[in-house]
Amino acid sequence: MPRVTFIQSDGTSQTIDIPVGHSVMEGAVKHDISGIVAECGGACACATCHVHIDSEWANKIIPPQESESAMLDFAIDPDETSRLSCQIKLTGAMDGLRVHIPKSQQ
Fold first, then answer.
1. Greatest CA separation found in the chain?
2. Secondary structure of the chain in the HEC alphabet?
3. Strand 82-84 and strand 97-100: pairing?
4. May I ask the CATH class of domain 3-105?
5. Which residues is 51 bridged to in the sheet?
6. Domain range list for the chain
7. Dihedral angle of Cα 80, 20, 14, 30, to the nearest 10 degrees
8. Which pTM value belongs to this model?
């Protein structure tokens, strides 16, 4: 089971196990990760699960599809590593993934 580390803006972190095939957002919600609200439940219809992918992982994850890119326009302070965590489905190769939760969501 891949382990994902969520890093808050103050530097604190929490590492959790998320089953392969589940989204980063699903794991965050299940484990009450602060800053991941997921108002739309994973339908890619809000930006309340916005994260910044750690630079080490940014090129290892499938790029966002057009619908996700459009929704990221509604996120606060998006950058080139911004993703909606509901759209990142975990694979075994993603063990050790690190994501940063924007300060604006805390």
1. 32
2. CCEEEEECCCCCEEEEECCCCCEHHHHHHHCCCCCCCCCCCCCCCCCCCEEEECCCCCCCCCCCCHHHHHHHCCCCCCCCCEEEHHHCECCHHHCCEEEECCHHHC
3. unpaired
4. alpha beta
5. 83
6. 3-105
7. 110
8. 0.95
35: left (phi over 0), alpha (psi -120 to 50) or beta: left
> Over 90: is that where the pLDDT of 106 sits?
no
| Cα–Cα nearest to 100, from 1, 32, 2, 33 | 33
Give 18-64 pLDDT, tens digit per residue. Answer: 999 999 999 999 999 999 999 999 999 999 999 999 999 999 999 99
